[in-house]
Structures are given as structure tokens and as C-alpha cells.
Amino acid sequence: MSLKAKAHGHGTKAIPLKKNYCFACGKDNPEGMHLKFELDTEGKRFVARFRLHKRYTGPPGYCHGGIIATILDDAMSKLNKLRDVIAATSQLRIEYLKPVPLHAPLRVESWELHKRGRRLTHTAEIVDQNGVVLARATGVFVIINPRQVFK
Fold first, then answer.
1. Mapping DSSP to helix (H, G, I), strand (E, B) and coil, where does residue 82 land?
2. Domains of the chain and CATH, by start
3. What is the tens place of the pLDDT at every residue in 73-95?
4. Which is nearest to 145 in space by CA: 15, 31, 5?
5. How many CA atoms lie within 13 Å of 141's alpha carbon, on the beta-carbon side?
6. Which of 1, 111, 117, 124 is 20 to 30 A removed from 42 (C-alpha atoms)?
7. What is the pTM of this model?
8. Which residues have a Cβ under 8 Å from the Cβ of 139 and sit 6 or more positions away?
């Protein structure tokens, strides 16, 4: 899969955000993970490649489950950019399939499953360098009007 456009932050074309303090992808958050997402050339999946360091430890040598959930949620939220909307996570279901190792090359990919009214259903997976799926999530995102919600 070849990659193209970078996906910065959570803003839209209509509502750009000046700063990005998102814990997962925010370049302006000094304590954040600084995940860098790119859109594939077909324009249907967002992908980030990364390594997790010891600050994200859960069980010895492996990542904390909350960090795994954060990565999967953020990957799925990037898909809202394809529809140029801001949508809030309404539901998040995580499958922890295998322990996610620290210091190893990893990849997260996300894609949309379907849209029904204001509800967008997305999925994402964290895979290791051999393509083994370590964790998977399905999320429901509800399209919001940020001018009403973030007054």
C-alpha cells in the first residue's frame, strides 16, 4: 500500500484548528505520542507507523491497554476527514488479540465500515512488522456541529 496525503489534527476544511494538542497525534502537545497519519493512495485508509517506548508500559515489555485504545480511537477518528466532518466517539469496542510489544515497529490502519445518518462506523487494527493483528477496534462516531458543541 502506498501512502499520500498527511492527516494533521482533527479539524476540517471548514473548521481548521490552529493548534493540535491531541494526546495521540498533536504536534503541539509536548507530552503526546506524535503519531503521524497518512492517507493511502486509494483514499480509503489512514495509516501510521510507530514504535512505543517504555513510558507506555503496561505489563513488562508490553503496551498498556489504555494506550492501545487511544491509538485505535485516534486512527478511526482520522476517517472523519474523508467526509470533512467533526464527529465524536460514541462507542469504542476493543479486541486485545495479542500483547502489543514495546520498541517494535508497529502500524495502525483504519477504514470506514458504513454511514447511517449522523453515525459513522469505523474500524482499525494495530499490526506488527509481520502483519499479525495485535489489536482491533470498532468505533461509532456521531457527527456534531462544533459551533454548537464547543461554544
1. helix
2. 3-149 (3.10.129.10)
3. 999 999 998 998 999 999 999 99
4. 15
5. 29
6. 117
7. 0.89
8. 72, 73, 76, 77, 89, 90, 91, 92, 93, 121, 122, 123, 124
